[in-house]
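Readers of this paper often ask what the protein records in our data store actually look like. The remainder of this section carries one protein's record, kept here as part of the documentation.

:::
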Amino acid sequence: MEEILKQLLAFIESQQQKQEILIIETNSQLYQENIASTLESYQKQLRFFIWPSTEYGSAESSQWKEGTILQTHKALMEAMETVDLVLIPSFSRDLLVKGALCMSDTSSSYALQLALMKKKSVVAIDSGINMTLEHWQLQGMDANTAYNNSLALFKDKLVNLGVNFVTVFDFSDFFSRWMKTQLPALFEGKLVEKSEKSADVRTYQDVVGQREITLKPHTKLTNLAQDYLRDKDVLVEYQR
């Protein structure tokens, strides 16, 4: 199977087919270089769109290489139509609260709400709001349990809305699995006509944000979809 994936990757690269990722910047920069390093290792297979957090500086000085900086709302709307993944490399607390309350009064919160309304696959790194990280513990900033619980409640609201949170330490493995599931989908969707059978395959994008899901008896799940259903304790029922 691994050899087949390698062959697919080589073929896709030869056709210059790339997975499109929209990066939403925030005022939080914590561990962002770790995420940039992981993405850089997949540079040949990816195309980046960057929506800068204009309140805190431009994406031109950021970690993302060879990305297209979106400078207008129209450009953001156009990119949102085609991207395969919306990535928030470091989730900030202001975005946490505004996102959970469905507010869109800042650059970052507007892009997040747009992604949620279009039901895009949204992945966020929780380093800016995860008080269990050593970064916060070493500074003694995890001492207020009530404060921490408040952040967790807002995070749960966003999970219900469709945001998949990943820890910075798990991102590399997560993204590796995601790329592997995208290669066959990219091959089927862009290079050959989809068969009726392919409609019985559920990917990560089909299940993310779901609390329960009903599948046909012969439906197959990609590895990343299975991981998500298991990790999030999603209720899975099969039609009879």
Q: What stands out?
A: The beta strands are 19-24, 46-51, 68-69, 85-88, 122-125, 163-166, 201-202, 212-215, 220-221, 235-238. The chain is about 45% helix and 15% strand. The two ends are 31 Å apart (CA to CA).
